[in-house]
Design brief:
six-stranded parallel beta sheet, two-stranded antiparallel ribbon, single chain, globular, 9 helices, 8 strands, alpha/beta
């Protein structure tokens, strides 16, 4: 898997940390406070969108009074403590990061999440000890499945796209990595279980745990 790879780029939610499920609870609470019933297809509608794109979509779709920036601030407040104190790591990830670091492979994060929540989860797990760059989809033109966030991460890591291996947990994220011309390993995640077969169809590799990967030297 790591042959000819100079950089590994990780999505955050569902890939480094087991956090996808908490957003359903946040969405139910947020919409409920505004008298709006949560619909199970919401996550499918916003999958892959950047934090800003999601706010734009929800403002228009639900006819919300708050501005895009106000919506993002509300969601950050609702999720911050969960990311700092409750979110758990994906199985085997820290050992894998240590192995990549020992092997001299560059690492980065390319995520649809917000800078504020990345900081919160970093306070808990100190991913910045490993990552040479952290890129959010809000900092590029288009969110996933567009390749923008992965191409920007490769640029900051000073490697070619074909020298990168991406780890992703959802279909649109896998598509973003493939659209960037990178190899992609899909990660098992309970949230995206209904996508499992499609994920396996699209990706180059599939793992249930990072413990399955032999890093070597």
């Amino acid at each position: 898997m790591l042959d000819q790879i100079k950089a590994v780029i990780f999505d955050l939610d569902g890939t480094l940390v087991d956090s996808m499920g908490l957003w359903r609870d946040i969405d139910i609470e947020f919409l409920g406070e505004r008298g709006i019933e949560y619909q199970d297809d919401l996550q499918e509608k916003i999958e892959g969108m950047s934090f800003t794109e999601t706010a734009v979509f929800c403002k228009e779709y639900y006819h919300l009074m708050e501005s895009v920036e106000e919506l993002k601030a509300i969601w950050n407040r609702m999720a911050e403590d969960k990311y700092r104190y409750e979110v758990q790591l994906k199985p085997g990830i820290m050992g894998f990061l240590d192995g990549l670091k020992a092997r001299g492979i560059k690492m980065g994060i390319a995520t649809s999440n917000s800078t504020e929540l990345i900081k919160a989860v970093n306070d808990a797990y100190h991913f910045d000890k490993y990552m040479s760059c952290i890129v959010t989809s809000c900092s590029v033109k288009k969110g996933k499945p567009a390749p923008d966030v992965y191409l920007e991460a490769a640029r900051q890591l000073e490697v070619l796209p074909e020298e990168c291996l991406v780890f992703e947990d959802i279909v649109k994220g896998i598509e973003a990595g493939k659209n960037a011309g990178m190899r992609v390993c899909a990660v098992e995640d309970a949230y995206s279980a209904p996508q499992r077969e499609k994920k396996k169809e699209l990706c180059d590799y599939y793992i249930e745990s990072y413990d399955e990967i032999e890093v070597g030297r």
